[in-house]
Amino acid sequence: MQASDLYQPEVRDQFIDQAHSTYTAAEHRVWDILFARQSHILRDRAHPDFFRGLAKLSLGRGGVPDFAVLSEELYALTGWEVRAVSGLVSDYAFFSYLSQRIFVSGRFIRRPEQLDYLQEPDVFHDIFGHVPMLANPIFADYMQAYGEGGLRSLEFGALHKLARLYWYTVEFGLIQTPEGLRAYGAGITSSAKESIYSLESPDATRQAFSLERILQTRYQIDSLQAGYFVIDSFEQLLNTTLNTDFGPLYRSLASAPEFEPDDVAYLSGKILLELYQIRCIVRLRHVRRKKANSFSRIINRDWHDRHLSR
Ligand SMILES: [Fe+2]
Fold first, then answer.
1. Secondary structure letter of residue 258 according to DSSP
2. With a cut of 70, which residues of the chain have pLDDT below it?
3. Which residues are within 5 Å of ligand 1 (an ion), measured at CB?
4. pLDDT tens across 72-113, in order?
5. Can you tell me the distance from the alpha carbon of 65 to that of 32, in angstroms, rounded to the nearest whole number?
6. How many Å lie between the centroid of ligand 1 and the Cα of residue 170?
7. Rounded Cα distance, 248 and 241, in Å
8. What would the DSSP string read from start to end of 124-163?
9. 244 FRET partner, CA 20 to 30 A, in 21, 38, 132, 237?
10. pTM over 0.85, yes/no
11. How far is the CA of 26 from the centre of ligand 1 (A)?
12. Phi-psi sector, 143: left (phi>0), alpha (psi -120 to 50), beta
């Protein structure tokens, strides 16, 4: 990817003016309501770096953020900027922007009656959900690496596989911290329901991060997630992405089985040990019961023999 790609018509022409001054008071109010609600719900649920990003970028200063101001502050932190687009951009353009450390966002905001659910991403999802994590230097590098990997995936015809990595990390990623499980994915942090469900519901599965497994796992776009992947650290995410040669991986996975979101592949060593111990105890009890039964059968036979012989 060359810097000059940004000047290709397909890429360049998708930016629009945010027209920040045209947001109405009602639209700014929707941002403020969502911001207050999510900031409260995410306490002890979102990763601390999410809150650091919110604070560093002053996303709670009131109303829909001005992308020009936000970009200046974000650029000073990690070299990223935010540009407005009118809707979905092409895959090539999306990856090109990421590889150039440009995050694209819709400018529209949901209506007051849509506070709880909106299928397409609005400015609250894009900015409140995604941008705080771009203030984390490691995560910022991961997003760029993802963009570069995305461009390569187009050459391999493997876009649908790499999209799963974005889905299960950038959108719906969980991370293990010393204080417990936390959310960092924008699809979680921008949603009141998913913020709670992803961390606390017994209906959802949560399995350890595995790049290969994620590339083979389908996802659902119109409901709460059935399964999540948990990283140990943002370094793990970045290093795995940087150190993987995706070409051979795509080829080796082409004929490998695919999985549903709630199929669980990996159990932790501790859980495996516990399962092994439970299995041993059950087998031991089974053997004892069999011995006891056969012993009682012998006693009974002896008893019968003795009494029948009389
Ligand atoms: Fe998103």
1. P
2. 1-13, 266-310
3. 121, 186
4. 999 999 999 999 998 888 888 999 999 999 999 999 999 999
5. 10
6. 7
7. 14
8. IIIIIIIGGGGGSHHHHHHHHHHHHHHHHHHHHT-HHHHH
9. 132
10. no
11. 23
12. alpha
Tell me the two tokens of residue 270: 């501790």
- Within 13 Å of residue 177, how many CA atoms lie on the same side as its CB? 17
Query: How far does residue 245's CA lie from ligand 1's centre (Å)?
Result: 26
Instruction: Give 44-102 as a DSSP string.
Output: TTB-HHHHHHHHHTTTTSSSSPPHHHHHHHHHHHHS-EEEEESS---HHHHHHHHHTTE
What residue type is assigned to position 136 of the chain?
N
Dist. CA 248 → ligand 1 center (Å): 28
Digit-coded pLDDT (tens) for 118-140: 888 999 999 999 999 999 999 99
- Helix then strand then coil, in percent of the chain rounded to 5, is 60, 10, 30
Distance CA 124, CA 136 (A): 19
Architecture of domain 3-253: Orthogonal Bundle (1.10)
- With beta carbons less than 8 A apart as the criterion, state whether 36 and 59 touch: no
Q: What is the pLDDT of residues 44-68, one digit of tens each?
A: 999 999 999 999 999 999 999 999 9
Give CA separation, 116 vs 23, 41, 200, in Å: 21, 13, 19
Cβ burial of 67 (10 Å; 0-12, 13-18, 19+) is buried
Q: What is the largest CA-CA distance in the chain?
A: 108
